[in-house]
Amino acid sequence: MVNSVRAMQQAGNRSTSLLLVLILLVGAALRLYALAGPELQWDEFLALHRASMSLPHLVASLNTQAASDVALDTSPPLHHIFIHFFRLLGDNDTLVRLPGALFGILSLLMIFLVSRQFFNERAALYSTLYCALLQFHINYSRFMRWYAFFYFF
After folding, report:
1. Residue 97 has what pLDDT?
2. How far is CA 23 from CA 32, 66, 88, 103, 144, in A?
């Protein structure tokens, strides 16, 4: 009896893992497909400009006024630092948007883990699938902004 219960749990764990991997692959495809388009937006150019600075100047610049001189830049420093290092791999729109897409994909895994902790595996799979297909989560993961970082952390 105990062996059959363990076998059922292992089969359930394997199917959950398989479904999770499938959902993550679909989420990754939606976030990575044609990542270079559309063209960069105004706030993405500002983030790219800041990420182009040397690391000490980049960190120091986060304490200064934003381009509009209306308010301080509220972007998290880690976002600019990630873009700074991804620019070292090459200078194109895909690479500078890649950190946001990767954190968007990783946030799907985080949603699964948190949902499973508070509810159960079935609810965790449904919530992960919902977020993987959610249009605004896909779009925010594709911009060179800090929104996907927010989902992850």
Report:
1. 93
2. 14, 38, 31, 15, 23
**Pairwise CA distance, residues 124 & 136, whole Å:** 19
The number of CA neighbours under 13 Å toward the Cβ of 108 is 31
Among residues 84, 72, 85, the alpha carbon closest in space to that of 47 is found at 84
Closest CA to 84 of 119, 58, 108: 58
Q: By C-alpha distance, which of 83, 106, 79, 80 is closest to 96?
A: 83
pTM over 0.70: yes
Burial of 58 (0-12, 13-18, 19+ CB in 10 A): middle
